[in-house]
Write a structure and sequence with these properties.
Arc Repressor Mutant, subunit A; 130 residues; mainly alpha
């Protein structure tokens, strides 16, 4: 029955776009909101749904919530994320979102809260693990 929960996550275009963005690394709610052009409430609700079903993880960094794909995804999640990655090449919205993320990434790192700035806790932890 866990597979049904995964598929419920994947049956919404906004959640698919969010998962596609998270493939490139963690993002604040505000960044996802800006890229998708959706309200904070809508993005937060979709992120909460993904999180409740094991498709995303969150951490608080000061006042900001930062989301990423699960560090230890289930087999069903891995298989479906791989499928999503294959389909991403064919879905125009995914390409537009990825391009917009690429254009905005430097600004996010320069102007955003501590969670997204170079040297943030996650980046420091990754360097220590390497």
């Amino acid at each position: 029955m866990k597979l049904i929960k995964v598929y419920r996550c994947l049956c919404d275009p906004t959640r698919l776009r969010i998962l596609n963005l998270l493939r490139d690394g963690e993002l604040c709610v505000c960044h996802i909101q800006e890229i998708l052009g959706e309200s904070q409430v809508k993005v937060s609700k979709h992120l909460a749904y993904l999180r409740a079903h094991g498709m995303a993880e969150a951490r608080r960094d000061a006042n900001w919530m930062v989301y990423r794909l699960p560090a230890q995804p289930t087999g069903a999640v891995l298989a479906n994320l791989a499928c999503l990655q294959d389909c991403a090449r064919e879905i125009r919205a995914f390409g537009r979102d990825s391009a917009k993320l690429g254009r905005l990434k430097a600004r996010f790192e320069r102007d955003s809260p501590i969670c997204c700035a170079p040297g943030s806790r996650t980046e420091r932890q990754a360097r220590r693990s390497a």
